[in-house]
Structure formats: C-alpha cells, structure tokens
C-alpha cells in the first residue's frame, strides 16, 4: 500500500521589507488608542510580509553629499523637510495622521519626494535604492519603484470601524488603509505605473492575466465598472482566499457585505507590475494524492514528486496561478511511496537579482559637476470610499 508524505520542505523567504509607521506628525491625535495603532500596523505588516525587495539605506554621511527628505504633513497638509535624513536599509517610513479632507474623501496618500545636492550617482542612489529599474535616467524608462517612504492622511470626520476581520458600523479602516498604502507603494503615483497606462488601460502583464484583459485605469486608480470590479480575494485579515470581492484600488469602495474587504489578486498583481518582488507563502493540503493550494495569478506552480527527499523528477506540468484555490491529482503515483512538494515561480520574470551593489558615490568625476536635483510631490485624489453597505 502506497504511503503519501504530504509534509514538504517548503523554503519560504523571510520578510525583507519593514514598513515603519511614524506617528510623530499625528498632531490631531487620531491614533490615540491601541486599537487604531494595531489596525495601522497590521496593514503595514501585510505589505511588509509580502514584499521581498532589498532596498539600500540612504545615509548622506556615507557619501559626502546632502539631501532633504520631504513629505506632506498628514495632519496639516503642509510640506515637511528633514535635512540629511537617514533611512535604514530595507525600510520604508510612512507618516500617518488625520485631518478633515472634505467631501466623501476618506484618505489621501502619496510617496515621498526629495531634493539633493551631489552627482548623478547620488541622485540614482536616492531614487533607486539599489533597484536599477527605479533609477533609470528618464521617467519613461522606469520599470520599478523604490521610495524612502510616504504619508497617509485619514479623514477626521469619518466614523471608522477599526476591526481587523469583520464588517461593523462605520467605514472599514483596514480597507481604506490598504488602499492608501497602495498609493504610497506606487499605484497611481509611480512612473512605473504611468508607463503601463495606455489608451485608458493598465497593460501590465500580471494585471492583464489576473483580470483576463488589460483593466481600465486612470486618475491613479483601476477604473472598473461595478459589474466587473471584483477579483479573487487574497486570503488575509480573516477573509476567504479565492472568493470574489471588490477590488480595493478603485476610486470608491464597492463593499457588497459578503466578506471583509481586503486586497484582491488584481490589486497585488498591479504591485507586481510596478516592480515589487512579492513572495506569497505557500499554503496547501492533500487528501489521498489530491493536492490543493492557495494560488496567486502572478505565480506559476508545479507539484513535484519523488521517491525520496533528494530529488523530485516527476509531478505536474506548470500550472498558471489564477488567484483561487487550485488543485492537482496524481494519476500515476510512484510505488511503494512518494514524496511531494509544491514549488512556485514568478510568472513574469523573477527579480531575484534586483539588489545592486552600492556605488562609491563620494568621488566626483572631473567632467561631472555637482548640482541640485529635486522631485515634486505626487498623490492621488478622489479616494472617497463611497459604499452603500456602510454609512456615517
């Protein structure tokens, strides 16, 4: 009788990215309770656990040049300038707070901006943080995004629900915070996003596979009509993986009340297209040679099979992920016993070699003048969270 050993050696990458939430500019005391801070941290940890990009530190003392980190004060809307600010490696710093945003706007967010004095290598270091695609010399050539951080403002007049796993009266804070963090991470605000918007559609390969065609986009959002604005959920915050729910990165909330509203497969696929390297934990089970797992459409899967734990020469063919719970049955098991493992690979080109070497930036070439460079702020308006299921 054949014995199946389903417990496999699955090597998971540890979290590479820390999203540090900074409350020092929460001068209106929005985050004045543990419940609120726990909800904000849970959103930061969600993205930090998925994103595996390695980002170089920004420390002007190492290179002999200067810079100013700039961001929008989340409680006043004014520009804050931090001279010669130090950003640790593999870290994004996001300043959060609250103010009255007006109308139906529930959140307002954007990535950092900055100014610097030095040479081109120093500017590339700040802009790219070791990611070559983010440091391309022109905006039109950028295929990646590597900010130092950003800001998020939440509306001070909204009645919020800070639950981490269920619908309650008020607007779901987690849903809005996920949406706004998506803008900090470049959705609608990065050059690598703009470069994939063509004729009113977002033409990124991962998003196209997830949606079935290039999804409509504009104004920093996915512009999906109400009857096409759903995608399989990515299982998080207690939500069921694979169940179709409203896409988070649309301008307005379309909560249908069936499940807690969190990032979907399409939302994550857009991040993948922007250049972020996503590592999704492999979660699978078996029943007498029938295997099921939680898939993501930007990954391909293969169930591998062998007679020991040293080699896995057989198994399934490559199975494209689709964001649902997928399955495979072994029609020809190996006697007298078989070992199985599940492997996933990036469907649209792995980025494991993205982490570049640190250049010797302190030396200015004879033909390269020291100059000043700056980038303007970017943020997305119109994140209104309008939703018939919720009310103020």
Structure write-up:
There is one protein chain. Helices cover 15% and strands 27% of the residues. The chain is of the alpha+beta class. It folds into 2 domains: 3-10 and 284-346; 18-279 and 360-375, no CATH class. Strands 1, 19, 20, 21 and 23 form a 5-stranded mixed beta sheet that branches. A 4-stranded mixed beta sheet has the order 2-5-8-6, covered by helices on one side. Strands 4-3-7-24 form a 4-stranded antiparallel beta sheet, with helices on one face. A hairpin with a 7-residue loop joins strand 19 and strand 20 (314-315). It is globular, with a radius of gyration of 22 Å. It starts with a strand and ends in a 17-residue tail after the last strand.
Derived from helix and strand composition plus strand pairing, the structural class reads alpha+beta
- Beta-strand proportion: 25-35%
Distance between the termini: 62 Å
Low-confidence stretches: 1-13, 350-375, 386-392
Order of helices and strands: EEHEEEEEHEEEHHEEHEEEEHEEEEEEEE
Evaluate the radius of gyration: 22 Å
* Number of structurally distinct domains: 2
Helix percentage range:
10-25%
Q: Please, what is the average pLDDT?
A: 84
């Amino acid at each position: 009788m054949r014995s199946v050993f389903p417990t496999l050696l699955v090597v998971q990458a540890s979290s590479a990215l820390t999203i540090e939430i900074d409350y020092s500019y929460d001068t209106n005391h929005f985050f004045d309770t543990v419940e609120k801070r726990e909800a904000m941290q849970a959103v930061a940890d969600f993205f930090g656990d998925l994103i595996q990009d390695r980002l170089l530190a920004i420390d002007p003392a190492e290179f002999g040049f200067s810079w100013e980190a700039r961001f929008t004060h989340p409680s006043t809307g004014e520009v804050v300038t931090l001279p010669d600010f130090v950003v640790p490696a593999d870290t994004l710093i996001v300043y959060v707070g609250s103010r009255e945003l007006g109308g139906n706007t529930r959140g307002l967010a954007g990535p950092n901006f900055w100014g610097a004095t030095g040479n081109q290598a120093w500017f590339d270091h700040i802009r790219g943080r070791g990611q070559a695609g983010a440091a391309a010399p022109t905006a039109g050539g950028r295929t990646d995004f590597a900010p130092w951080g950003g800001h998020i403002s939440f509306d001070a007049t909204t009645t919020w629900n800070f639950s981490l796993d269920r619908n309650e009266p008020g607007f779901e804070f987690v849903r809005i915070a996920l949406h706004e963090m998506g803008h900090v991470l470049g959705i609608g605000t990065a050059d690598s996003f703009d470069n994939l918007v063509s004729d009113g559609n977002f033409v990124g390969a991962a998003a196209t596979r997830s949606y079935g065609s290039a999804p409509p986009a504009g104004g920093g959002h996915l512009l999906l009509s109400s009857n096409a604005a759903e995608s399989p959920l990515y299982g998080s915050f207690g939500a069921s993986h694979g169940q179709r729910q409203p896409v988070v990165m649309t301008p307005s909330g379309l909560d249908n009340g069936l499940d807690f509203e969190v990032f979907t497969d399409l939302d994550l696929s857009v991040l993948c297209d922007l250049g972020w390297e996503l590592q999704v934990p492999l979660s699978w089970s078996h029943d007498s040679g029938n295997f099921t797992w939680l898939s993501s459409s930007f990954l391909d899967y293969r169930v591998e099979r062998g007679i020991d734990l040293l080699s896995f020469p057989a198994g399934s063919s490559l199975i494209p992920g689709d964001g649902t719970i997928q399955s495979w049955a072994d029609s020809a098991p190996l006697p007298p016993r078989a070992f199985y493992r599940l492997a996933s690979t990036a469907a649209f080109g792995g980025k494991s070699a993205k982490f570049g070497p640190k250049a010797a930036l302190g030396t200015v070439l004879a033909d390269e003048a020291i100059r000043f460079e700056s980038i303007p702020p970017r943020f997305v308006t119109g994140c209104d969270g309008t939703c018939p299921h919720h009310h103020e």
